[in-house]
Amino acid sequence: MRPPHDSAGLPAETRPTSERVAEAAQPLVDRVRRFTPAERWVHRTTAALMGVCVVTAACLYLPELAELVGRRELVVRVHEWSGLLLPLPFLLGLASRAFRADIGVLNRFGHHDRQWLSAALRRDKSPESRPAGKFNAGQKVYAAWIAGATLVMLGTGLMMWFTHLTPLTWRTGATFVHDWLALTIGVVLAGHIGMAIADPESRRGLRTGSVSREWAKREHRLWRP
Amino acid sequence: MDHVNAEQPGGPAEEHPESGGKPVGRRLVLGMLGLGAAGVAAAPVLQNGLESFLGAAADKDPTGLTGLLPNGGGFRSYSVTSSVPRKNADTYTLKIDGLVDRPASYTLAELRALPQTRIVRDVQCVTGWRVPKTPFEGVRLSQLLDAAGVRSSAGAIRFTCFDGAYTESLTLDQARRADVLVALRMQDKPVSHSHGGPVRLYVAPMYFYKSAKWLSGITVTKDVRPGYWEERGYDVDAWVGKSNGRDDAPTT
Questions:
Q1: How far does the CA of residue A103 sit from the closest CA of chain B (Å)?
Q2: Do B220 and B103 share a domain, yes or no?
Q3: Looking at the structure, do residues B126 and B216 belong to the same domain, yes or no?
Q4: Do residues B47 and B145 share a domain?
Q5: pTM, two decimal places
Q6: What are phi and psi of A204, to 5 degrees?
Q7: CATH number of this structure's domain A31-219
Q8: Distance (Å, rounded) from C-alpha B102 to C-alpha B113?
Q9: A147–B233 C-beta distance less than 8 A
Q10: Whether the Cβ atoms of residue B182 and residue B111 lie closer than 8 Å to each other
């Protein structure tokens, strides 16, 4: 984790000389640690389970795919279980101190996040107007939204799965929410993946655990690794 | 970097921009949960509006994209073909043939002139959705069969549809039930095109795939010939709650 950093709030020039010397002495290929192995596995397994959910959902929902794949019974079982297991990597991840710390960072929105969001709304893409810590405000909003959406999908999904638990009107309501939210998640998830495809260094961060210092300074200049 | 720091509020609690801030993430998660619960509660109202809007849009949509949108707990239109021709009172005919003494052909007006039966039951789809208390009205199938004179060698009925692909089947005993209709009205309106109009089958006690849309032919056969979905794995005897591995409440 980030060591205690007394000088973090001060302009670079006023930091102790020893620190600047230490920075300059680092090797040319300068990597910054971004994610621990535990965090990467949480992301990987969550992504895999979400992928299975989406693919099986498509096979259940789109008539063309449903006919192509058939085996509706099996597809339903896989969909139900992958959905049920979806929160598990997160829960296991809570055993990792680094993961818990990142959840804390994702939860807290500071002044710079508001600035980032208003720049995003203005479609202002310049890095100067989009200050970000370890995670930018867009990533924070996405993390919270997808977490909430997953829980809603889990709740409504369980109501559709165990039909005897709730009255009919709840069940039809759950079907309604499950369907429309699934469509929304599909769109948001496509955005998430699209942005990852557009940024190889951020993908490298999740694949190898580290990113280039240059990228970190440019994209997340308030981050103190 | 200094201009960034100059922009920070810089209160004692926010020495580093990442150390403070409001727990907006948690609020977003809770907000989503609240929205989800509200959506479940408000679904009956929301989906009524959506159903009529999407139903109207789907009738005019040549791309079929509206077919991909969810339609909640209301009716969902499943069609096995990409487009279905339209039939009206001038162009619609229902043929009855096969193992009968008097093969017949009915126009829509002739069907309307026969005694009508109205049944109000829940509609249960095998994919899970259920629509409570939906009125169907039309001619009892048994009446049409009696008029045609079913031969003693007959044992089943095969239904064909003017979408050109869908087929269904019933045993003769099932077909003679009082709650099996050749339906002309649904929800107290003429059956719309998207619901299989002008004439569809209505088999009240069975999963809704038995209630073939766009009904155009009734052929009396010796044995049951599995219908479209039944060749694709659904049960032929599709009693609600007692088939297809489901335990829904019966719709009898």
A1: 9
A2: yes
A3: yes
A4: no
A5: 0.62
A6: -60, -35
A7: 1.20.950.20
A8: 19
A9: no
A10: yes
Distances (CA, A) of B17 to A7, A222, B12, B197: 13, 7, 11, 64
Q: Are residues B116 and B5 in the same domain?
A: no
CA atoms within 13 A on the CB side of A19: 11
DSSP conformation class of B22: B
Does B77 reach chain A within 8 Å, measured CB to CB? no
Task: Match 């202002």 to its residue by tokens.
Answer: A124
Range of the domain at B32: 1-74
Q: Locate the chain B residue with the closest alpha carbon to A128.
A: B4
Number of domains within chain B: 2
Asked if residue B67 and residue B128 are part of one domain, the reply reads no
Per-residue pLDDT of chain A (225 residues; tens, 9 = 90+): 444 444 444 444 455 555 555 445 445 568 999 999 999 999 999 999 999 999 999 988 776 676 667 676 788 899 999 999 999 999 999 999 999 999 999 999 999 999 999 999 999 988 889 999 999 999 999 999 999 999 999 999 998 888 678 776 787 788 889 989 999 999 999 999 999 999 999 999 999 999 999 999 999 999 988
B120 shares its domain with B156: yes
Interface contact A215, partner B, CB < 8 A: no
Residue A164 near chain B (CB below 8 Å):
yes
β-pair partners for B201:
B182
Minimal CA separation from A85 to chain B, in Å: 19
CB < 8 Å to B27, chain A = 144
- Bridge partners for B94 per DSSP: B106
Q: How far is A170 from chain B (nearest CA, A)?
A: 6
